[in-house]
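Below sits the subject:

***
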Amino acid sequence: MDLVSRCFKRMRGLVSSTPPHPSETPARPALRRILPSAWAMIRPYWFSDDRWAAWGLLLAVVALTLGMVYLTVLLNQWNNVFYTALQDKNLVVFRGQLFRVTYLICIFIFLAVYQVYLNQMLEIRWRRWLTNRYLRAWLSDGAYYRMQLVTRETDNPDQRIAEDVQLLAAHTLGLFTGGLRAIVTLVTFVAILWGLSGTFTVSLGGFSFTVPGYMVWVALLYAIGGTWMTDWLGRPLVGLNFNRQRYEADFRFSLVRFRENTEGVALYHGEADEFRTFRERFEGVVGNWWGIMRRQKRMTYFTSGYGLGAWIVPSIVAAPRYFRGELGLGGLMQTTQAFQQVQDALSFFIQSYKEIAAWCAVIERLAGFERALEHVHQQSSAGGIRRLGGRPTELIVKGVDLFRPDGQPLLANINLTLRRGETVLLGGASGSGKSTLVRAIAGIWPFGRGEIQLPQDGRVLFLPQRPYLPIGALRDVVSYPMPASGVDDKMLREALEAVGLTELAGRIDEVGHWALQLSPGEQQRIAFARALVQKPDWLFLDEATSALDEATETFLYRLARERLPHAMMFSIGHRATLDTFHTRRLMVEPGVNGPATIVEIPVAADGAKLRKQ
């Protein structure tokens, strides 16, 4: 098995949701599995709408790389002339060569600068395209939500989009340009070194044989030995780099989550527990880092010696011909420099081992992310709950069964017809599946079967118990998910005043982290303000007033009925005060020997029963 294959085999095929111990490393998938995954990620961009700019930049980078190799050949030839002039004490040639090397170096610097500049330009364009592609796949069909329910393979999807995508573009371009330069340099300088080496005669036991281009063979053997040793020493780096990205993301996520829940932690005085959690997460980072340090220390011992050896070995090997007078000083220096170029090209794997290891880890992490996305999208397209277009005045739930993520039945044989203008209240014990029904109607719950007929062209709005408040201007928060540019400021202010947030009406241009600044009750008022602004035809409220007192709850429900008289209002709640605002009552009834069902209760007879919930 070749060395690169063994390198690629260090990664894990599946990533569990529980962080592994720092000493653990992913299992190594075969090269035949990694390369198709890498090609599947890399190929689409080069045939996308941005392909002409991409290919143009790539060809420019390739041309600059070839130009730099050509200048290296000219500098190699310069070595011969320059050191021969020194040996001959030829001042005129010496001065001429100083001038020549000056402009060669200036041109080389110019090419090197623009190679890096255009390479970075290509990298950011590729990263932008990849980021948009992954974001679309992650956000479409509720994949971001479904992935939390149906797959354990992908940890920290935000980190994979934000960092792994950047690393994929950077490492791929870096390895491509480095590999291209190594190949061109190898082909060019092998020919030069072969001509400069001459022949070497070896005598053994009375027999002698001649080795043509012997310096080429020495460089080849030296590089093969170094490559094998580097692979043996650095093989664990692939798994260590894989885990490094995970530990860093887990630690960063725990800090972000703490920041977004500071009030809850403060009320519980949970600082000590949070500190223990942070310390445990960071210990994973530290333990993995120590593993990388130890492995890189061993590699540095070898690669430092290997690099110094590459500087002295060619002089030792070429010295016999120099002392026999077959080479002048210029020829010796040119031969030594050509040997170093060949050795450097052959040692590309050694010099790029860390980057290859990181690239392997990135490919496997993004491959796992893509597998998870593909899984949830396939599940969405082949889901058991069919979503069809129906009449504009009715929403029909027909023969729907809902299951838990583990396959256990939750609700069975749900048959509902909801009409424009009516108000429906669903009650039942906590955890009985009420919110799951709303998720199924919204199309984000994948576990079930049956049919839901949605009204055509009807505006639907869901108000969950904990409204989502994006970070940004208050106008964007109130109009979410509609763009604030399409909503009149007067309407936004009037909606805030109507729900009792008069003090916020004059702050719609203020930018902030509103989920942290506003109380749960104020956040639920914001949700009602959204309903007033967006005027939905179908409004679903899932414990939407649980953080409010009964008087405010009554006020908001009355406001919603006055402002949205033609909207269907479907509520989930436990308070008896909600009875007044709903003309139909539904109840989740536990099954005797099976899953629960939903039954309709006559309005005149349900008062006492509903108040017990």
Q: What stands out?
A: The chain has 21 helices and 14 strands. The first strand starts at residue 199 and ends at 204. The longest helix spans residues 271-323. Confidence is low (pLDDT under 50) at residues 1-31, 605-613.
